[in-house]
Each structure stands twice: as C-alpha cells, then as structure tokens.
Amino acid sequence: MSFAPKAKSALSDRIQACIHVDQTCRIQSVDKDSNNWLFHLLTLVHQRSMIPALLNTSLNVNKQPILETPEDAFLFFDSSKVAVMVLDNFLISKS
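Above: the chain sequence. Below: its structure as tokens.
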C-alpha cells in the first residue's frame, strides 16, 4: 500500500532525506504475510536504529538512466564508492 501523509515531528529530524519539501513522505507499508523477508529486514532496522523505515530511491549515476539489469548493477558497483550491494538474495561486498 502506498500513501503520502505528513511526517511526524518526532521522527522528522532523523529521516530528513525521506521528507518532501511539503513535509509529506511517500510511504509503502508491508506486513509479514505480504513480504516476510522485507518485514523481517524492517524489524531489524527498527530494533537497531529506532527508525521504523528504509529509504528506497532510484539507482543511477548523474545524467544516466536508472539501472535495469544485474549487469548494470555490477558495472555501477565496480565504478562507485558503494561498499556493499544486495542483489536478489546475495550480499556482495568489495572487501
């Protein structure tokens, strides 16, 4: 489910990158039944950071199209400062 409510002031200073200029957030909710893996990940993030959210953004380099394929992702990964990448069920690290 997706909607765009006003950000709660209690969290707004901790999630500034997620908040639009009009103080709204585009939220996508998930539950255990609809996506157990993502629900578990969000639960862990919340437990460790006390922030019950993840930021999802497009993956592209300035003035380049959004990455579409695993090959695009590896080319980006190899040429960027990104240290870790998750692709499907794999955690890929440069170290």
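Residues 58-95 form one domain.
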